[in-house]
């Protein structure tokens, strides 16, 4: 039973699936949320909820205390204002990573997005979210922690486990994926023995079929140490 996992963004559509999958298998995750009532509504008394905000460093450190692995499912939902992508997907990730390093966290799993290396992509009109997500990714890749950066395609609220998945690297593919399958990838990474140090895109294929996550992961190449992608962007 895992008790030393922190889910940030646990009240989000993907975050709550991650938490539920963990509860279903007997884990007792800690969650970092802004809205205590919503967390209680979603998870009852089955999780330890820490109230905070990724824009506020002081709320993050106590949340990381004693934590082995952080899973971040946060994301800005507004293109402008105080909780825009710059504040959340970049500076919020920077704050989380710094707090995790300070607390001695071993592994950090970050849900980012497909197309982060394509500033001309229409999604980037949403407060330059792609550019800021890439900056957040870079901070994690250079943090010294073991990590996984998962870049899902467009997220869908469909049942997971139905379609075989395509995991790719280099930001060449487009597509969609079930939030449940993204959650399953996060849990597989949580349990992964040895070093991850991986960045990959994930979409579902057109084919119904088995999802052998071990095979998918074994086909991926580890990032070069100190990979910074945003520096080379136009
Ligand atoms: N939507 C897509 O098609 C798509 C495609 C590719 C990648 N992604 C990325 O995939 C991830 C998951 O997406 P989703 O749609 O499942 O997420 P979501 O439902 O929008 O949830 C976002 C979560 O982030 C939390 N959050 C926002 N600002 C915060 C702050 N300042 N401090 C702490 N928590 C904060 C929210 O908390 P509250 O509940 O308190 O608001 C919520 O729990 C995100 O990173 C998203 O950008 C999405």
Written as H for each helix and E for each strand, in order along the chain, the element string is EHEHEHEHEHEEEEHEH
Query: Count of DSSP helices?
Result: 7
Q: Radius of gyration in whole Å, from Cα?
A: 16 Å
Strand arrangement within the widest β-sheet reads 3-2-1-4-5-6-10-8
- Span between N and C termini? 46 Å
- How is the biggest beta sheet arranged? 8 strands, mixed
CATH class: Alpha Beta
CATH domain fold name = Rossmann fold
Instruction: Show unreliable segments.
Output: none
- Ions and ligands: NADP nicotinamide-adenine-dinucleotide phosphate
Number of strands: 10
CATH superfamily: NAD(P)-binding Rossmann-like Domain
User: Based on helices, strands and strand pairing, what is the structural class?
Assistant: alpha/beta
Oligomer: single chain
What features would you describe in this structure?
The chain has 234 residues and is of the alpha/beta class. It has a single domain, classed as 3-Layer(aba) Sandwich (Rossmann fold), CATH 3.40.50.720. The chain is 33% helix and 22% strand. It is built from seven helices and ten strands. It has helices spanning 13-24, 36-43, 57-64, 85-103, 129-141, 179-190, 213-218; strands spanning 5-8, 30-33, 48-51, 69-72, 107-111, 146-152, 154-156, 163-168, 176-178, 198-208. The strands form two sheets. Strands 3-2-1-4-5-6-10-8 form an eight-stranded mixed sheet, sandwiched between helices. Strands 7-9 form a two-stranded parallel ribbon. Helix 1 packs across helix 6, helix 3 crosses helix 4 and helix 4 packs parallel to helix 5 (129-141). The termini are far apart. The site of NADP nicotinamide-adenine-dinucleotide phosphate has 26 residues, from helix 1, helix 4 and strand 7.
